[in-house]
Amino acid sequence: MRLDRRGWALAAGVAAVAAVAGAGWSLWRQRSVGADAASPNAADADALWSLSFDAPGGGRLAMATLRGQPLLLNFWATWCPPCLREMPTLDRFQRDFATNGWRVLGLAADQPEPVRAYLAHTPVSYRIGLAGLDGIELARRLGNSGGGLPFTAVFGRDGLLRQRHSGEVSRALLEAWAKGIG
Questions:
Q1: pTM of the full predicted structure?
Q2: Sequence-ordered strand ranges (E) for the chain
Q3: Closest of 98, 64, 103, 83 to residue 165, by C-alpha
Q4: How many angstroms separate the most distant Cα atoms in the chain?
Q5: N or C: which end of the chain has fewer CB within 10 A?
Q6: pLDDT along the chain (182 residues), means of 10
């Protein structure tokens, strides 16, 4: 069968609709797996525990020292307004749930000097690590496919990734995680 101009146009239209439908399906699947689902790549989450980061005040922060307790890992930057807005909520969560074993760690996907300057004016009670731009890649490996900030990953006492969330967290979400994982 030979296609005329109208047939080619129809075939091209069907192909375009199929491509858009496929892209939409893929996006829907990524979101339905969800920002709050367990990570499909346990190897990336497991590799996290072998990493270490510079601390803003000096010294190194070894992730292995945080294994064995529930951990809320928050990726942030000084140039990210939602990141800065949620920091008091994370700080309050750390103070309120530390007696239950919870730890909060903020990994700054930023340059060291802006982080140090910010923390000098707005200190937090939880630990901060300097991840630099490598922090964005680490967040992607933990399930932040969009690479946006803030991004939060929650690990159980067993070191496994239990929850993840893109965007600003609320106190209610943090408390729900603490009840479900603690």
A1: 0.77
A2: 52-54, 60-62, 71-76, 103-108, 127-130, 151-155, 161-166
A3: 83
A4: 75
A5: N
A6: 56 42 38 39 81 97 96 98 98 97 98 98 98 96 95 96 97 97 80
